[in-house]
Sequence to fold (244 residues):
Amino acid sequence: MKPYLFVIGDVHGQYDLMMNLLKDYDPVVHQLVFIGDLIDRGPKSVACMRQAKQLVETDQAIYLKGNHEDYLLRFLADPEDVFERYLLNGGQATIEGLLHQGATAEYSPTEMAMMIRSREKELIAFLEALPYVYEWNDYLCVHAGVNLALSDWRNTTSHDFLWIRESFHHLPNQTGKTIVFGHTITQVLAGDNESTALWQHDHKIGIDSGATYGGVLHGVIFDRTTLLQDISYPNYTNIWTGER
Fold:
């Protein structure tokens, strides 16, 4: 086991910010974890996804499934029903990144899904196999959170791993783990709609500070017992203004 854990928050296509964070990543000493939602909304969603896939394959990085990776898979499985909602959640950036600019206006949802499934079999299989959680010493990394009402958090449903919000934030954490998560932006967790600092409460650490909305992208480094360093890069360009 490597001596340090390096967790990167919800990237959402902000490739340049992600690559800035990776300048501090050392594969010899850091276990790298992407918390999910590398795609959608941001302009370089597919580049982010492919870069993370490469690091999984070369460095044994961990890429956790987020609700947006799941959204892409659901679109590919049921394009006509999912397409409009996926667009509202930023899916155009990913679909057109996998095809070409203007594809969402040129083709039907079924045609786009068929082309992506035909061209990207390896990538789709990779996304389907992404894990929901990663345990490292006394830390638990997960995209959205776990069901703290259960006697064993491991029985959390896949939907809750990807989507849970308030009940996870507010129920007491009796897992014995420090839970590192994304999905809900720190501006909401802090209740002020502006804080881009890490949210820390009851051994829960929220690291999504809305990089795609003009916030910051966090890379957080831990040793076995302590949060050692929070590296963050602000987003001043390519800001998503659609639905959260």
